[in-house]
Amino acid sequence: MIRKLKPADTKAIENILKKIPNFKGPEVSVAMELVNIAAGNPGQTDYNVFVYEEDGKILGYHCIGKRPLTDAVFDLYWIVTDPDHNNKGIGKSLIQHAEQFALQNNARWLLIETSSTEDYAATRHFYLRNRYSIISEIKDFYSPGDGLIIFGKYFNNKHN
Fold first, then answer.
1. Dist CA 103 CA 85 (whole Å)
2. How confident is the model over 19-47, as pLDDT tens digits?
3. What is the value of pTM for the model shown?
4. 158: how many CB neighbours lie within 10 A of its CB?
5. What distance in Å separates the CA atoms of residue 26 and residue 18, rounded to the nearest whole number?
6. Which stretches of 25-130 are DSSP H helices?
7. What is the side-by-side order of every strand in the sheet holding 133-143?
8. What number of CA atoms fall less than 13 Å from residue 52's CA on the CB side?
9. At 126, is the secondary structure helix, strand, or coil?
């Protein structure tokens, strides 16, 4: 089941983030900053967090929001699954849910940013398998040798 974040979910999300080898302290801190904003301010709409729950246990989440200063562009800020539960379709369910959320809010684009390093190769393949295209690359963005890759999916809807 995918549902909206509850304040009590934050510790479970933090525990999942800390299990992921690619996420160092700064990544976990940034991810938790968005989760905590969503949990502590239910009226805000910048960061919409949804959790994947099975048998009362959180196994993943995504955080999505409308990009400021755009009329219909959404960012998928984070999509995370518990590494102890990989290859169960959780990530696919979460990305489909994010797309439905974006479409329900009249999105034209859904953008996702990630690293160009080899550590993120599986992540990039996941986005490609889910029909996202690479729409931009910036070399040496995060640090020398670690570029930014922006994936996007364009939705043909009433904006066209």
1. 28
2. 999 898 899 999 999 999 999 998 899 99
3. 0.93
4. 8
5. 11
6. 25-40, 90-104, 121-129
7. 2-4, 48-54, 57-66, 73-81, 109-115, 146-154, 133-143
8. 23
9. helix
Number of H helices, E strands in the chain: 4, 7
Q: What is the pLDDT of residue 120?
A: 95
Rounded to 5 degrees, what are φ and ψ at 11?
A: -65, -40
Cα–Cα distance for residue pair 159/51, rounded to 1 Å: 29
* Annotated domain spans of the chain: 2-154
As a whole number of Å, the end-to-end CA separation of the chain is 33
Count how many residues are written for the chain.
Answer: 160
> Of the candidates 48, 76, 71, 69, which has an alpha carbon nearest to the alpha carbon of residue 153?
76
Structurally, at CATH architecture level, domain 2-154 sits in 3-Layer(aba) Sandwich (3.40)
Unique residue bearing structure tokens 């994947």: 52
Place of tokens 């379709």: 89
